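INPUT
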Amino acid sequence: MIETISQTCIAPINIAVIKYWGKSDEDLIIPLNDSISVTLDTNYMFTKTTASANPSFTEDTIILNNEEGSKDNIRFINCLTEVRKLASCSKNAQTVEQSKWKVAIVSENNFPTKAGLASSASGYACLVFTLAKLYGLDTDSSELSALARRGSGSACRSMFGGFVRWHKEEPCIAKPVAPSNHWPELCCLVAVVSNRSKTVGSTEGMKRSSDTSLLLQHRVKNVVSLRIKAMEEAILQKDFVKFAELTMQDSNQFHAVCLDTYPPLFYMNSTSQAVIELVHQYNEICQQVKVAYTFDAGSNAVLFMEKSELGRFGAVFHSVFSSLPASEFFKGSSFPLEQVKDQFLDLKSNDSTKGSVQYVISCDVGEGPKLA
Amino acid sequence: MIETISQTCIAPINIAVIKYWGKSDEDLIIPLNDSISVTLDTNYMFTKTTASANPSFTEDTIILNNEEGSKDNIRFINCLTEVRKLASCSKNAQTVEQSKWKVAIVSENNFPTKAGLASSASGYACLVFTLAKLYGLDTDSSELSALARRGSGSACRSMFGGFVRWHKEEPCIAKPVAPSNHWPELCCLVAVVSNRSKTVGSTEGMKRSSDTSLLLQHRVKNVVSLRIKAMEEAILQKDFVKFAELTMQDSNQFHAVCLDTYPPLFYMNSTSQAVIELVHQYNEICQQVKVAYTFDAGSNAVLFMEKSELGRFGAVFHSVFSSLPASEFFKGSSFPLEQVKDQFLDLKSNDSTKGSVQYVISCDVGEGPKLA
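OUTPUT
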């Protein structure tokens, strides 16, 4: 009897600071514009995937978060087919043989899925990376990113650590802008506002925007390329103020496009709005941009800042949005909270904000996928 | 002793269906783009203004909603100065003399001010119209609209009944598109969501958008003129579906521009969002666009429909957004409510929608300002 081959890997989530919204090719998942993201560390949030193969398996199977996934999922099939194609061209006869075996995939996200926390990004990046390891392929990360893209567009960015740009031009792959250790002062807080699933998924939402939003066309043609250039510069120069302003403006413009879609798409809720208002008030008190927010297709906030700001902002954020003890509210990397004082005491919570953020995960910029 | 001269007039509010947002001249109040509005009847909502003058008055005074207004308000002064200028050029010697007297203005809105219900529009239209009556001027409405514009941009549109277009080109006046009796089937429900004042006023908000929103520039240059043309056609042809779609798309685009502003402007709230979602669901059940929403710089919704739809939509709206008896919930023109049935029963309220709309005012398309 032939022994089952198996590999287990983990992959990070990534947060877009220049957003991807809209495809020029639905099947190949070619984006309307370039995007830039930050890969988060896998200390707390990650997808973990085990891929196994054996000639006795009778069909490809997938278990996602302990539930049987659909084998007919075209995106899963696309990724699997593409990696198998690579393996079948290997010079190693064993790899070629193994690529014919059916696989069993078990994948798990340790964070709310389909709530705007990029679960499909880490998920498909992990799937492709794990399959590549299973077959012992030495394909480079950029090429793997193109395969992960077939599962979920933003998954291609999770194939690298640090700061990553997804280029829309052929071969439509992600490339690093700067590695994970480039800007060690940068960190973020992920505020989990709601774990409700989205009402309109990203795929359907971005199609609707492409079809109906006049503002999206303008964004794609005239706005994004300048912002991509400016964002790359801000990252390379570690210019936090520029990075933060571009991040906030681009998040807002993405949600503006959603609102300009017909019928309109609402991904942010009143808590998201309260987070935005708090960040602007906080920055105003600081008389400098110290914190930036960004929201994907969901209500959760991702807040970027430099580590020197964590203790002060974390304390303010905790006092406004939670009644839980700090030890329960904050997860991920630990940091010392300061006491809220001076003008920051004016940033009061009210009945509608208190308790509206469930918990916060503190993260650093992190590495790409790896063996578990 | 010379007797005091006095006139009392009322003026309507107007609801923009192609929105005005942004000025090319802050002082003269020249808009970045044309806009189109519908004037509402004055059965329930109106501004009522009394202007009095007497040579013994020692200063110009204004009382707004029972509170002393600022005499230094530049917009009030501009309107007053412009009407006096007209009066001082009159062939009637008495008018010329009266234009030198100080005036006492008492003005009242019978609806929430500064909550996106266009209180300044009806207010300044009424001020200018009443002053013109006080001096017995026979100036035509278009010319008066240019004077009202100096008080509040959208006030120029309240100088006419029916359907009105404000032209940005010199002399920057409003002109009727169609009179109030043109489309007698059209009516609207004004849903008062909140009577809180706006956090960022329109004047400051539109300046911030002009300064920072890249999407506003595109809207002004490439979107609005086509929509103005299409909206005029829809009105002249009484094409409700076209009218409704343009109205909703333009409301959404205006709020998208607000979100693209930096820092972003939020005028709608979670109740506004629930209204939008209800309208789209309702239209989907009807398999035709039967109701349209529009939101100005506030959370209140204005819902347009044809009168044949009032009984059914009113009943659904009432069941979703209120626990009050219908007799308390609906104000303005009365209409018979139907029973909610069939698929409309699925449009359920929940804890967050129930009670979130305070009351609803039913209106027809109405006339311009007139003597009270």
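end of record. Chain B has two domains: 5-183, 186-364.
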